[in-house]
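Tutorial handout. Part one gives the primary structure; part two gives the three-dimensional structure as tokens.
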Amino acid sequence: METKRKKDNKGMLSQLSLIVVLIMIMLTACDSLPFELKIPWAQSAPNLSPEVKQTPQPDVTSTVDPELEETVTPSINPDKLILWLPPELDPYANSESGKILMEKLNSFAHANKVEIIVRIKAQTGAGSLTDSLTATRAAAPEILPDLILLSAPELDLASRRNLIYANPGLNDILAGVDWYPFARQMSIIDGEFLVVPLFVDPYVMVYNSASQLPPSNEWNQIHKNFGIFGFAADDPLGKFLLVQYMAAEGKVSDGQGYALLEEAPLIEALQVLKDGLNTRHINSLSLGYQNDSQVWQSFLDRNLDTAVVPVSLVLSDPKDNYEEPEPVITESTFTIGSASAWALGNPDTGRQALALELLEELMQTEFLGRWSESLHKLPSKPTALGSWTEPKLKPALEKIAQVVVLFPDEAVLNKLGPILRNATLLILRDGGNVVETARQAIESVK
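Part two.
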């Protein structure tokens, strides 16, 4: 009997040993499994003695968003970021710029173990970025964008509606001297750093590199240039006359932000058109152009010797058609351009912190240089433009980036644009008197 009992005990011990070994194998293998395996009996509550201190948790301070009128508690460890972008920056597009951005977003998401969600929003119309931001804030604040790219007019509107947020981290990104003047101008809204400028698309004068008579760098000397000059004279916003007017140091708004035209600089700007007409440098071709694409195509078709277009059209030319002229741009001492900037669209300070980390990477010199060159826009930082591979145009672009100023805000531009267009057509089409046309334009502003 005793021998049998000993045998039974040995059998039980063997079984227990086998179970223990199996459990140890399972616990050891858990870390290498391709999915999360939860074993309830292997988990136990931590045994904290009085001498063992827990890791201190960060202080969480709740803030009240004045527009939402509710408490916003910062996320300690956000697991996702939401980006709102215009169609031209779509990372899913089959373009070089899209691939460059996608690579950066994937790298950041992997390194920070977060999900990045990109929403593409139109810049104009009912589904525009600012309209979507306003609607989302009211209906679904939990899906507000952490980073949003807005044009200068959209930024002004978003700021007035309190749709974008200040953060000390923005000041850190904007510190230093590696910024063009237009970026400094754009970054401050209502006296505080509210956005991080990304790029600008200035108007430039372009001509054929084969020309033996390069045009003047000064806007008011176009009547002395060789050949036929073209611009969008029928442009609804009168942008070319606006360039001439602002180059003559004309103000576009008063101290209260209302639209304004001054007589002396407007007469000077209109006289430039009159001189170009009288010397037959500006001919009837310009009267048929309503947008920049028409002007650019006419230049490529060799109907124009010099033309005024956004630099993005020049840089986006594939340069694979030997029948087209090789474009060169003048080194203007003044020009205006449209620009865009990054802004924080979510009041959650925890998510803002993560968004700022991504923003710092997006504004790094090497990446910003590659990305902006593929987008055909001038970056906001001189070092980024200096890293471009464009051999011929880069010296002129670097000078233009130093002198470009931003278009007036949307309300002013919408007020002045049609007036400047009409004044342009009165001079070029109807042979109007410069002084009388200027006074009529100024009266139309009132």
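Part three, for discussion. The first strand starts at residue 63 and ends at 65. DSSP finds 16 helices and 14 strands in the chain.
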